[in-house]
Amino acid sequence: MLLERKHGEFVESPEQLKPAMERAIASGTAACINVTVDPHAPYPGQ
Fold first, then answer.
1. What is the pLDDT confidence band of residue 24, given thresholds at 50, 70 and 90?
2. What's this model's pTM, rounded to 2 decimal places?
3. Measuring CA to CA, which residue among 2, 23, 4, 20 is closest to residue 12?
4. DSSP 7-44
């Protein structure tokens, strides 16, 4: 059985997204960033 390293993060605020993406890229592995969004927040530009 082949075990691969993976990277995962859970992001709850906009300020957390860029650092999470930087860590994911730096991990050098497959990465998943789960982002919580507010379905009632206005869409930018509306």
1. very high
2. 0.72
3. 20
4. EEEEE-SHHHHHHHHHHHHHHTSEEEEEE---TTSPPT
